[in-house]
Amino acid sequence: MKYISTRGLSPALSFSEILLGGLAPDGGLYMPEAYPQFSAADLSAMRGMNYRDLAYTILSRLVDDIPAADLRDIVDRTYRAEVYAFARPGQNAEDITPTLELEQGLYLLSLSNGPTLAFKDMAMQLLGNLFEYVLAKKGETTNILGATSGDTGSAAEYAMRGKQGVNVFMLSPHQKMSRFQTAQMFSLQDENIHNIAVRGVFDDCQDIVKAVSNDHQFKANHKIGAVNSINWARVAAQVVYYFKGYFAVTSDNSQKVSFAVPSGNFGNVCAGHVARMMGLPVDKLVVATNENDVLDEFFRTGVYRPRGSANTYHTSSPSMDISKASNFERFVFDLVGRDGAKVRELWSKVDAGGAFDLNADGWFAKVADYGFVSGSSNHAHRMQTIKQTQAQYGVTIDTHTADGLKVALEHRSADTPMLVLETALPAKFEDAIVEALGHKPQRPASLEGLEQLPQRFEVMDADTDAIKAFIVAHIE
Ligand SMILES: *Cc1c(COP(=O)(O)O)cnc(C)c1O
Fold first, then answer.
1. Which of 240, 331, 370, 377 has a Cα-to-Cα distance from 297 of 20 to 30 A?
2. 313 with 291: CB under 8 angstroms?
3. Cα-flanking dihedrals φ and ψ of residue 193, to 5°?
């Protein structure tokens, strides 16, 4: 299995060769050169598998340059009940991504039972173990530099803490994350984790990361890496829970299910697309956005019109406040018949700050063949959905999951089970829950007092040179 670029101008590489990098040299994203196929017989064999066996079965078809026993060991160390410990009462943590039935045919697929209470742990924990393994094989080290406004940074830190050969430098806007998110990150005492609180906003943090990445000399000299959302291994890891969710709510392979996915960068739902392409019987993939609705606009109209960060709304589902969906190019590559020249043409418009329209040449008409539908949600919808879900089912959901559920209900059909992907636990977004329900959500007992733990972080100005100097001082 080789990986090719969506822009068609980069050499094909193996899984381990693309693991540590970001974009392909031609600016594209890596995709498998062909999707491995699971037959009906394969699906039957996979149906009774636990998460680890399922993950190994799927990942071994996507990774062919890690010896089987080693991949098996990496998977077994990653997907343990002790790591995904925050299952709800009545759920079995051994399921790793257990389901919760709200009513007949309507389920939550719990992806947020990992250490940072958000779905990004599902992929990031695997990435941590893969990075450590591949770096050791190559005799290399990496210094991960990232910017975060919450979920990504904490998931990366919890995945990379204590890993050999990896340092993490995570920039976050000083005093702009929630107390819970801040405490989650800053309470880590691991030597290889460096929290830098930047006096500024998230965009300042991101600008510094870009400036450092554009300094190719510095980047090479100091082995600067990233764990951004376009990393293929993250998408691959996420494919697994679509299969797990499917088997949990069906009894044979003639049945189809639909998934509703709270979306921002299109990474999560892209994995659903890949699962479908590999043979999973998926009816609809429901793309749910918040007020930042570029993806909903595309799936309704065929026009993809990313917006600049100045036109991004700050919402109560903040991890979806994204107006340029970095993984969307992967789906468009498939949609346009894997024509790299076409993708280059489309993204030359996007990269110049423009839009593209797929109606003219008939591509948009094909979107339905892939099962995609969409919708958007706003603050009032979220509050209403959280209230309603509490009243009707006695279940507290977070704001992102509420966006997913709201849009799911608009696309539900009578005899197809609908799984709403739960992308964060409500404890992570206390203020919004208090606003919706008038009381705080329950917090897992082991996280009581999190905000009182000693914190380890450095406050710095939004000054690229100073931050470069800090990095250099802490890796040598
Ligand atoms: C990252 C995130 C999302 C969006 O996922 P994408 O892969 O970027 O589409 C949704 N909800 C939560 C809680 C997240 O952390």
1. 240
2. yes
3. -110, 125
Counting ligand 1 atoms within 8 A of each CB, the residue from 121, 127, 178, 320 with the most, and so the one to mutate, is: 320
pTM: 0.96
Please tell me the CATH code under which domain 93-117+233-437 is placed.
Answer: 3.40.50.1100
* Res 133 pLDDT > 80: yes
Kindly give, in sequence order, each residue whose CB lies less than 8 Å from that of residue 409, ignoring residues fewer than 6 positions away: none
Instruction: Note the pLDDT tens digit of each residue in 308-319.
Output: 777 888 899 999
* 476 has a pLDDT exceeding 80: no
Domain parsing of the chain, residue ranges = 93-117+233-437
Give the H or E element holding residue 101.
strand 99-103
- Per the structure block, which two tokens stand in for 49? 């598998």
Q: Whose CA is nearest to atom 7 of ligand 1?
A: 267
Q: Write out the two tokens for 313.
A: 């709304």
* Cα–Cα distance for residue pair 168/146, rounded to 1 Å: 8
pLDDT in tens, 404-440: 999 999 999 999 999 999 999 999 999 999 999 999 9
Q: What would the DSSP string read from start to end of 105-156?
A: TEEEEE---STTSBTHHHHHHHHHHHHHHHHHHHT--EEEEEE-SSHHHHHH
SS3 of 219-279: the string is: HHHCCEECCCCCCHHHHHHHHHHHHHHHHHHCCCCCCCEEEEEECCCCHHHHHHHHHHHCC
320 CA distance to ligand 1 centroid (A)?
6
Reported as a single tens digit per residue, the pLDDT across 19-56 is: 988 889 999 999 999 999 999 999 999 999 999 999 99
Query: 361: number of CA atoms within 13 Å, CB side?
Result: 9
316's CB contacts (< 8 A; 6+ apart) are 379, 382, 399, 429, 432, 435
> How far does residue 423's CA lie from ligand 1's centre (Å)?
7
Using an 8 Å Cβ cutoff, are 225 and 145 in contact?
Answer: yes
Task: Show the tokens assigned to 201.
Answer: 């906003």
Q: Does the annotation count 120 as an active-site position?
A: yes
More confident residue, 286 or 148: 286
DSSP state of 96: S
